[in-house]
Every structure is written in structure tokens, then in C-alpha cells.
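Reply to dn_fold:

You asked what the input looked like. This is it:
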Amino acid sequence: MDIKLINIGFGNIVSANRIIAIVSPESAPIKRIIQEARDAQRLIDATYGRRTRAVVVTDSDHVILSAVQPETVAHRIVDSDDDEGDIKETAEEDREEIE
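and this is what came back:
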């Protein structure tokens, strides 16, 4: 089994093989999922205090908050199939997107 790691912002890495969904945090059902995960201590906040732009749901029912757009995270997963990815490049993308 080939393990793929994806940068979800600020050097935080998640196993792409464990991701079920990458969604926007605005809807009421997603806000409910976030609160339920927080209550069950399954929430991982990887935003470094910034605005949550993507919510990553894993197969272990953990919910990960990211300050990077869902499209960007998804794009990194697709790109990782083509090559190993460049951590330095993704860090620069994060800075541009958040500013």
C-alpha cells in the first residue's frame, strides 16, 4: 500500500488514504459535525488561529480544520498522484492564499 501525505497548511500533513471528504465549513450540517467532533474529542484544529476554510473528514471519524481552501487541498491530492510534491511550494501557496 502506497502512503500519500498531503500538506493541509502550515506544514501540517495528513494521510490522503484516510480522507473521506474535504468540505467547506459554512453549512449548518458541517458546523454540527465540527461541534460533535469537538465534544467527542475527535477535532484537530490545524488552522493556527486563522479562519477555517476547509474541513477534512477522515475514516477514523476525526475532523480536521484547515485554513486552506478545500479546492487547494483536493488539488494537492491529485497532484501527489503525479509526483511527490514540493513542501516549499505548498508553503508559498498557503501564504498567498491566506493573505
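Residues 70-82 form the longest helix (13 residues).
Hope that clears it up.
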